[in-house]
Amino acid sequence: MNLSFTDEQNLLRDSVSKFCGSDYDFETRMKSVNSDSGHNPEHWKLFAELGWLAIPFSEDLGGLDGGDVDLSLMFEEFGKSIVVEPYLANVVLSGGVLKRSDLENKTDLIEHLITGEKQISLANYEPQKGFNLDNVDCEISEDGSVNGLKTTVLNAPNADFFLVFGKHQTGHAFALISKDAKGSKVTTYKTYDGFVSGDLHLENCKADAVFSKADAVDILHQAILEGIICVSSEAIGAMETCYKLTIEYTQQREQFGQSLSKFQALQHRMVDMFMETEFSKSFLLKVLATDDENERTKLIYGLKNQIAKAGKYVGEEAVQLHGGMGVTEEMSVGHYLKRLLVITNLFGSSDYFLDKYIES
Amino acid sequence: MNLSFTDEQNLLRDSVSKFCGSDYDFETRMKSVNSDSGHNPEHWKLFAELGWLAIPFSEDLGGLDGGDVDLSLMFEEFGKSIVVEPYLANVVLSGGVLKRSDLENKTDLIEHLITGEKQISLANYEPQKGFNLDNVDCEISEDGSVNGLKTTVLNAPNADFFLVFGKHQTGHAFALISKDAKGSKVTTYKTYDGFVSGDLHLENCKADAVFSKADAVDILHQAILEGIICVSSEAIGAMETCYKLTIEYTQQREQFGQSLSKFQALQHRMVDMFMETEFSKSFLLKVLATDDENERTKLIYGLKNQIAKAGKYVGEEAVQLHGGMGVTEEMSVGHYLKRLLVITNLFGSSDYFLDKYIES
Amino acid sequence: MDLNFSKEDLEFRDEVREFLDKEYPKHIKEKMNNGDELSREEVVEWHKAVAKKGWMGHSWPVEHGGTGWDATKVYIYLRELALAGCPTFVPFGLQMVAPVIWTFGSEEQKKKFLPRILNFDDWWCQGYSEPGSGSDLASLKCKAVREGDEYVLNGQKTWTTLGQHADWIFVLVRTDDSGKKQEGITFILVDMKTPGIEVKPIITLDGDHEVNEVWFDNVRVPAENVVGEEGQGWTYAKFLLFHERSSIAGAPNMRRVLNSLKIRAKNTYHTDKPLSEDKNFQSKVAQFELDLDALEMTELRGLAAMREGKSPGAESSLLKIKGTELQQRLSTIAVEMAGHEGMPYGGPYGFSDVEVAATKSDQLSAPKYLNFRKVTIYGGTNEIQKNIIAKAVLGI
Amino acid sequence: MDLNFSKEDLEFRDEVREFLDKEYPKHIKEKMNNGDELSREEVVEWHKAVAKKGWMGHSWPVEHGGTGWDATKVYIYLRELALAGCPTFVPFGLQMVAPVIWTFGSEEQKKKFLPRILNFDDWWCQGYSEPGSGSDLASLKCKAVREGDEYVLNGQKTWTTLGQHADWIFVLVRTDDSGKKQEGITFILVDMKTPGIEVKPIITLDGDHEVNEVWFDNVRVPAENVVGEEGQGWTYAKFLLFHERSSIAGAPNMRRVLNSLKIRAKNTYHTDKPLSEDKNFQSKVAQFELDLDALEMTELRGLAAMREGKSPGAESSLLKIKGTELQQRLSTIAVEMAGHEGMPYGGPYGFSDVEVAATKSDQLSAPKYLNFRKVTIYGGTNEIQKNIIAKAVLGI
Q1: Does the distance separating the beta carbons of C340 and A152 come in below 8 Å?
Q2: Contact at 8 Å (CB) between D293 and A283?
Q3: What percent of chain D has pLDDT over 90?
Q4: Could you say which of A14, B9, C29, D62 has the lowest number of CB atoms within 10 Å?
Q5: How many angstroms away from the CA of B266 is the closest CA of chain A?
Q6: From the CA of B316, how many Å to the nearest CA of chain D?
Q7: pLDDT attached to residue C351
Q8: Which of A152-161, C242-251, D100-109 has the lowest mean pLDDT?
Q9: Do the Cβ atoms of C351 and A190 come within 8 Å?
Q10: Interchain proximity B338–D339, CB inside 8 Å
Q11: Is pLDDT above 80 for D311?
Q12: What is the pLDDT of residue D35?
């Protein structure tokens, strides 16, 4: 039994933590959020230079052979500063699909991901089709033409390519579609957590390639599971900042002649926030330390359920204990709640994953 | 729209309240609990003299024509002192079945109930058959012989007669069985709230009468619905005493140089207890003021769900805030929790009634 | 004891429905149904329509133009308005400053202000909170110094709801800081057009501009605008807070939202069966409904008590806590229902001009949830309400 | 990072299992499975069996007879014991007074007491709480006055768990009341056979006799029984409380109970389908399981930190709070599962000689629930634990 991180993992965490601590204060983040692309290309370049974009790829794909633990450590640090750089969309989700796929030129695409030159978005969800991954209407025909509507395609406005998941005569498959492909149209929008996203309309759009016809659903599932670990870790980082911000704020703020942090009812609530964060960390650790695949999958469902509840709870309490200031755009705490709320609902609701857990 | 009580109702409440306040302190209650019959025959006589046992019966049955509101008012007062006198078992449940039944000599039996001379217990539940009323194995044959096992028959050791609900070739029926009937055996026990109860074993036991073959399930259902209103009202009375006892205790008890009631975290929890009690009262009022039968039935299911949760919550908090003293037999507060816990589980669990509410 | 309405009450209900049918402007109704924001003009239009009918003073004494309705009628009236999805009344004039004026104001003030409030000629806003004062309202610092027939105001107020639309503001100012913090506070009425007043928007989490900072820089106000006595403002302020009861609109409005949500659930799919058939969803909705019933009945108990001449007192804190918690729970159910389709930002500063695949309701779910974070904070945080209940009701 | 055991660890686990298979007395095992209470003799018998194997000192330093196991082995050992349903060790000697003696005691005390504790020759109990002191432990009043080579004790202790069985008691007494309440407290070891000691039972809600009042009436104790210095008892008392960590047994024991509950649910009917297929029940159990996983991993994180030489510190308060909350939740699930069949009173003072139709498990559900009300109160209430976390971990 071993619950320690390796030296490399500790180094990675320190390096991400250092970046977030010194180069990513709240003001910097909001500049990225309010920019056109919704993130800072300079940061993205830096991520590439530091090798972060190469982490979850095997060495023969040009990667650093990192695993879930490495991703989790990074995302926990990202969460502490609610980093908006599109790591999840590019590296975890699109990268996660690509690396498992049988796409011929996947090495090239992954290389572009790793250098940060190209961005790629995964397009799988559809309006009113719910959370079951295989429930899609989008059709990928024999000749590679694609018809369908994909929604909340993360980081869509920055994508050079889309990996479109759809029905195929063999069952399901992915289609690689470049952003300028005829018959494709992207409607871009901000999501309420400050990230960018979009809808992808495809009408007789010719794919550059159709791939992974044999196991597309499984590949998608694996990538999403990895995504859940990442956003859960991110949520835990955000929760930690939430209770720390709240402690800080209540210590500074005086009311009725003493600092708010001295009111016992508020103290106990901050303790509850801390406890939720700590037990969430423990559960994440259990997931990361579990080898057996079935057991791990079940636990990931459980993780998503737990994080959805704990994250929302901690975020809401943080805003409440900040009082009036908590609900202003100006204070950072509310932005943590927004991101936590998105994570709560990303990939499926807390109830959905409890049911998946029960059924597994 | 009218949410006021009538003068008669206010008088009734005052009279019950006076009895509980002056003649039924905790010590008196525990004497009843620890007596052989589990209640005080003198009290029962007094209840009869005051006309309380006649309340829910129509005038032609020798009753006072009272309704659910009257019962509810009484039970709320009973709950404040967790009265163990067997009103629910005799008057509400057995009386509730009898008054709706087609039993020939029901007037006589009800008269005995009203004068307090005879006690009657309803025997419907069976081991491991759950909460659905019609789910019984007990058989009442053509010739009136009864076979079966009935469990948690309230007030069984004091019963002169049993109203046994069972299967009958017409569907379901009740059998009237006297306590000395051949083939009947009562195993008596205390329940953990200090009440008495028992199992009724019936082996080729000859019934004095078989009745209400046409609508036994419906009659049982109506009596149980009335029972739910009564125990819910009782729970609300108990909840009120719980938060009041807690306020009193925390005001007297000093710790770290000030009275416990001055600790803000505890104050807020007492406020929560108070709020749960008040909103429970409101919901009960809604039930009492609703005429439409279907709507009322649905709301009674909802009431049982709400009371089960609120009662358990308030009782648990009361014990917790009493600290070490709260878990001793010596203090009254724990006995309130015990009764609240029984009410929580009587007639069906909180989950069961939420489902019934959803299905109605 | 029954919840049935009398024949007269039923007739009155029909009268309200008829009024709404005819006089509730269609274009406003449509906007409300879509969850769109109303313009200032539209809010005024709605209030004027009610004023024309003579129904603005439902909570006012008859002598000042009140309707003279009993509690049941008031209940019916507000319920029908909420069920029809009408905008809630702007409370700052009608429910907040008006009772202070008719109770403590001079005859001139009553004549000058009350009819205009009842007719919604003036839009009022509130100058209570200050940065740093939070729930400890009496620690306010905004200063007023008397100079001849005028007071000169300097300082800052914050969390002034809809201050950007207001014609008048009632302000708590410090006219004396030599004594206890509750002393030396004065209640004064200020014309928003007076030079030296600046209104700065505060953007809340949902991206909306609803609250403001109001800055006073040597603002000169006639001394006749002081209500009651100088230095007695804290008394009036507490009276006002007490009068700022949680409105009965809470429960019926939630019922309307809940119903539309239940209908939507029939066509919402998280899995292969509609959400309306999902056990988790059903349980959540059922428990919400039960709590909503309890809230509504608690309001009715309060009304009934008032009719019997009892004061609802600190029990209104109870309604405030439960009502706001339920509002937040309902908004959470809507966000969960939207799932990832609630992510596109449908708030007032979003890309509302873009045609997004997600439904409008889904897009609005998160902004509403975020907007509702404030309800447990404003008007005295729920924590403060608990302190009030502890002290005033439970005596601890 | 992995949860797999090494080959050596697996061998050790098998050794523990083999030991339990052979040496865990069958008649005790049966009683534990039935939920029956053990007699004093049986408790001693179990401890002696472990002592004979040399495994009592799993948390002790090797020099005093400890096993020298690493954290993984300790985890495996306690987990196997809990999963086999063994009685938990009586902690007052083994885990509470022993560390105080080996850290602060004299050589004579170490020699006299430690081997007997390790061999369970003496049954220890705790004299800490007093009526009226509650969580404010330092306000204790029980007095000890020195007379020659002896101290004379007068006063009362309470909540003394299993004091009716004890041979020795460690007591906090006040030897000086001139200074602050934390000063003038002395830690002293008292033979329960000393004249003047009276043990009176306290019956708890479940009807059980587990805790006691202990009265001291001119009890004369040799001065050599004082641990460390007179007046320094508060330091030792805090050290002891810190050492009284929530035992790792919590999670595995709950897992065992949960499993048996899940099995029973397959044959429990509230409606026409078994409870195990009921959605509400499934959700409740699933959420409990997830929380239990988190609790267990938090314990493991603590063990891992300790192995790296870090102190688990106030984080043990976190385990205490969550662990006890989960114990209560589990007991609640069992009570709900029993429904009305949990009503027959199956507690130790009930009609246990009567043959009741309800199953034994159902009858025991309420007494267990009632017994578990204490766990959030004893050993420092959960409220006090939160105060500790606020101060020591969060720095507020």
Answers
A1: yes
A2: yes
A3: 75
A4: D62
A5: 8
A6: 8
A7: 47
A8: C242-251
A9: yes
A10: no
A11: no
A12: 81
C65, C68, C74, C77 alpha-carbon torsion, rounded to 10°: -60
Q: What is the distance between the terminal CA atoms of chain A, rounded to a whole angstrom?
A: 25
| Alpha-carbon span B268 to B313, nearest angstrom | 14
Give the class (CATH, top level) of B7-115. Answer: mainly alpha
Q: How many residues does chain C have?
A: 396
C350 and A189 in contact by Cβ < 8 A?
Answer: yes
- Bridge partners, residue B145, by sequence: B206
Q: Kindly tell me if the per-residue pLDDT of A199 is higher than 60.
A: yes
Q: Mean pLDDT throughout C67-82?
A: 91
Q: Determine the residue type at C185.
A: I
- What's the pLDDT score for residue C248? 62
Report, as ranges of residue numbers, the positions in chain B whose pLDDT lies below 50.
Answer: none
For B68-71, which contacts have Cβ atoms below 8 Å and span 24 or more sequence positions? B68/B226, B68/B229, B68/B288, B69/B5, B69/B9, B69/B288, B69/C1, B70/B9, B70/B12, B71/B226, B71/B229, B71/B230, B71/B233
Which residues fall within 8 angstroms of residue A17, CB to CB, at 6 or more apart? A77, A80
Contacts of B272 in chain A (CB under 8 A): none
CA distance B44 to chain C (A): 29
Strand A171-178 to strand A209-211: parallel, antiparallel, or no bridges (unpaired)? Answer: antiparallel
Name the DSSP letter for residue D157.
E
On the question of pLDDT at D245 being above 70, the answer is no
Residue D149 sits in the same domain as residue D92: no
Tokens of D32: 């534990």
Q: How far apart are CA D364 and CA D208, in angstroms?
A: 12
What is the gyration radius of the CA atoms in chain B, in angstroms? Answer: 21
Local structure of A328: helix, strand or coil: strand
| Cα distances (angstroms) measured from residue B99 to each of B92, B111, B178, B292, C207 | 10, 11, 18, 21, 64
Q: What is the distance between the alpha carbons of residues B73 and B161, in angstroms, rounded to a whole number?
A: 28
**CATH: 3.40.50.720, 3.40.50.1360, 1.20.140.10, 3.40.50.2300. Which one for B217-359?**
1.20.140.10
Q: Is D283 on the interface with C (CB under 8 A)?
A: yes
Chain B contact set for A264 (CB, 8 A): 263-265
pLDDT band at C311 (very low <50, low <70, confident <90, very high): low
Amino acid at B350: S
Q: Which domain holds residue C323?
A: 237-394
> How many domains does chain C divide into?
3
pLDDT over 90 at C44, yes or no: yes
Q: What is the dihedral of CA A329, C382, C231, C133, to 10 degrees?
A: -40
> A284 pLDDT exceeds 60?
yes
**Of residues D283, D286, D304, nearest to A3 (C-beta):** D304
pLDDT at C256 over 80: yes
Q: Please say whether the dihedral angle defined by the alpha carbons of residues A258, A259, A265 and A268, taken in this order, is positive or negative.
A: negative
Closest CA to A99 of A52, A62, A46: A62
- Amino acid at the residue D228: G
Checking if the pLDDT of C265 tops 80, the result is yes
Which CATH number is B120-214's, of 2.40.110.10, 3.40.50.150, 3.40.630.30, 3.40.50.261? 2.40.110.10
| A280 touching D (Cβ < 8 Å) | yes
Question: Residue D41: what pLDDT?
Answer: 97
Question: What does the H/E/C string look like for D347-362?
Answer: CCCCCCCCCCCCCHHH
Residue given tokens 């700022």 in the structure block = C244
Would you say B73 and B81 are in contact if contact means Cβ atoms under 8 Å apart?
no
Residue D354: per-residue pLDDT: 75
- pLDDT number for residue A3: 86
- A193 close to C (CB below 8 A): yes
Question: D121 and D44 in contact (C-beta within 8 Å)?
Answer: no
Let me know: does C215 contact C158? Beta carbons within 8 Å.
no
